Amino acid sequence: MSSDRYTVESPFPSPLDPWLHRRSAALLTDLYELTMMAGYQRENMTAMPVSFEFFFRDLPPDTGFAVFAGLEQLLDYIDNLRFEPSDIAYLRGLDLFPEPFLAWLRTWRCTCDIWAVPEGTLVFPDEPILRVEGPLGEAQLLETFILNALNYPTLIATKAARVCIAADGDPVMEFGLRRAQGPDGGLIGTRAAYIGGCAGTSNCLAGKMFGIPVMGTHAHSWVMAFTNELDAFRAYLRFYPCKSTLLVDTYDVLLSGVPHAITAFQELRRDYPDIRASIRIDSGDLAKLSKAAWNQLNDAGFDNPMIVASNDLDELLIADIKHQGAKINAWGVGTHLITSRDCPALNGVYKLTAMNPSGSWIPRIKLSSNITKLTNPGRKQVFRFFDRDGHPVADRISDVDDPPPLPDAATMFDQNQLLRRIRVRAKTVHPLLTRVVAGGHVVSDRPAVDIIRRFANQQIHSLHPEMTRLRNPDTYPVGLSATLAAMKRSMIESA
User: Fold this and answer.
1) Is position 411 within any domain?
2) Residue 113 C-beta-side C-alpha neighbours within 13 Å
3) DSSP character string of 164-213
4) DSSP for 339-362?
5) Which residue segment(s) compose the domain that 270 sits in?
6) Which of 100, 218, 352, 491 is the most exposed place for a label (fewest CB within 10 A)?
7) Boundary (domain end) residue, out of 274, 307, 338
8) 236/230 Cα distance (integer angstroms)
9) Claim to verify: residue 124 and residue 173 sit in the same structural domain
10) What CA–CA distance (Å, rounded) separates 56 from 450?
11) Contact 121/432 with Cβ under 8 angstroms?
C-alpha cells in the first residue's frame, strides 16, 4: 500500500514467518505504546529506569500448569528491533508525533535488560515469567510484542501437553496448519505444540525451520482420484512402500477400507516381509472402528498394526476413547490443538512494578476492586522448591534483595490473603529467572527446539499426578516471601 507521502512495507517481506527475514518489526505494536513514548519524552521521563513484568492471571479451565513458550521469537525481535526509514515516514503521516520524537526514533536501539524463565519451564498464575528493566521509553515499547510473542505459544504448548498426557505415551501428530490463525500462527503454533510434547507435524515449513519431524498420510482426494480404492492404495504403497499409512474411511472403513488395505499390504509383504500395516481412521466411532479394524488386521496376519486416529480430537475425547479400550496407537490432532478451541487466549499481562527516578528503586502496585487483579509490587525473583524425589512442590515469589530461601523450612504468604502462611518443606530450591538480554543484546543460550521439548517433557513427568489430571487438577501453591507480602500489605493500606 502506498501514498504520495510514504510507502508502508510489511515488517517482513514474507508474511509467513519473522524468523525467515531478519528485519525489524518495531511497528508491530499498539498505537498507545508509541503515544506514551512520545509523552514520556515530552515530560523528560524517557530515560527513567523502570521494571516491568510479564505474568498471567489464570490457567485455562481444568489445567494445572502452563508450559512457557515463545521466548525464542522474542529474542529474535530484540536482536532486530529498530525503526526503519519507512516506519518513520508512516508515523509522520499520522500527524500524531512531533519531529523531535521521530528524530529520536531514527537512532533508537533497545538497551534493556531482560530476565526470563527458560523456555519449556512449567509456570503458574501471578508469578513473573519475564522481567524487563531499562529506560521507561524502551520498556514501554516492548509491551505489545512481549504479550503477542508469549501468550499464544504458551497457550498452545500447554494444550499440547494436555493432549499428550491424554494419549498416555502414544505419539501425537500436530495436524493443525490448515485451521491455524494464519501462516504465522501455524508456524508458531507448530513449534509450541512440539515443545508441549507432540511427536511431529504435518507442517513442512516448520519442519525445515525448526527441525521438527514431519509426518502425514494422504487425503481422501487421493483415493477418490483413482478408479477404485484398492488401486489407490496399491499406487501409494508403490511410491512409499515402507512409510505409508493408508486412509481407510473414504467409503466404508470395515467393508471397504480395511479389507482393501489388507490386500495391498499383503501384496507389499512379498517384497517387504517385515512391513507393519498402518491405517488411519478419520471419521465415525473411533473406538468401535479401531477395535474391529485391529481384529481384521490381526486375522490377516498383521500383528501390532499401526492405527492412527484423527477427526476433531482433543484431550478429553482422546482420554474417553482410550478408556473404551480403543486399539489406537497414534493420534493426529489439528483444530482443537492449534487454536486451543476451548480456551483461545491466555490472559497474560505486562505491568509496571518498580521505578527508579533518583537512584533507588520504588515499588509500584496496581490496585483494583477485583482482588485477583492486584499486582505484586517490586522487582522479583521466583524460587521453585523440590522434594527429595525431584517433584516441584511450591514456588515462592521474592523481592530481588531477599536472601535465597532455605529449602527445609521456608515460609510463604498467600498472594490474596496476605496474612495466611504457607509452610514449605523441600529438599532443594532453585531460582527460575535468569538474564537473557543485557543492554539490549541477547546473552542467553539459544537451545534447539528438541532440547526445549525434552526439558518440558521432563518437568511434566516430574509433577505429582494430581497436577496433571484433565479435570479438577490440584492447585500448585505459589506464595510471596515475608518481605514481599509486608510490602504489598503496606502499599494497599497506604493507598
Assistant:
1) yes
2) 11
3) HHHHTTS-EEE--GGGSSHHHHHHHHHHHHHHTT--EES-HHHHHHH-PP
4) TTTTS----EEEEEEEE-SSSS-E
5) 160-338
6) 100
7) 338
8) 10
9) no
10) 25
11) yes
Dihedral over alpha carbons 289, 290, 291, 292 (to 10 degrees): 50
Calculate the dihedral angle through the C-alpha atoms of 63, 314, 302, 270, rounding to the nearest 10 degrees. -120
Domain end point (choices 292, 313, 338): 338
CA distance 243 to 237: 8
What is d(CA 96, CA 90) in angstroms, rounded to the nearest whole number?
11
- The total domain count for the chain is 2
Q: Is 39 helix (H, G, I), strand (E, B) or coil?
A: helix
Edge-to-edge strand list for the sheet holding 362-363: 362-363, 348-355, 49-56, 130-135, 113-116, 434-438, 441-442
CA distances from 87 to 11, 25, 374 (A): 9, 9, 36
- Cell 503496606: give the residue: 490
Q: What separation in angstroms does the CA of 174 have from each of 208, 228, 363, 445?
A: 15, 30, 44, 27
pLDDT tens for the 495 residues of the chain, in order = 333 333 333 333 343 444 444 467 899 999 999 999 999 999 999 999 999 999 999 999 999 999 999 999 999 999 999 999 999 999 999 999 999 999 999 999 999 999 999 999 999 999 999 999 999 999 999 999 999 999 999 999 999 999 999 999 999 999 999 999 999 999 999 999 999 999 999 999 999 999 999 999 999 999 999 999 999 999 999 999 988 999 999 999 999 999 999 999 999 999 999 999 999 999 999 999 999 999 999 999 999 999 999 999 999 999 999 999 999 999 999 999 999 999 999 999 999 999 999 999 999 999 987 777 899 999 999 999 999 999 999 999 999 999 999 888 788 999 988 899 999 889 999 999 999 999 999 999 999 999 999 999 999 999 999 999 999 999 999 999 999 999 999 999 998
Same domain, 388 and 331: no
**Alpha-carbon distance 71 to 288, whole Å?**
42
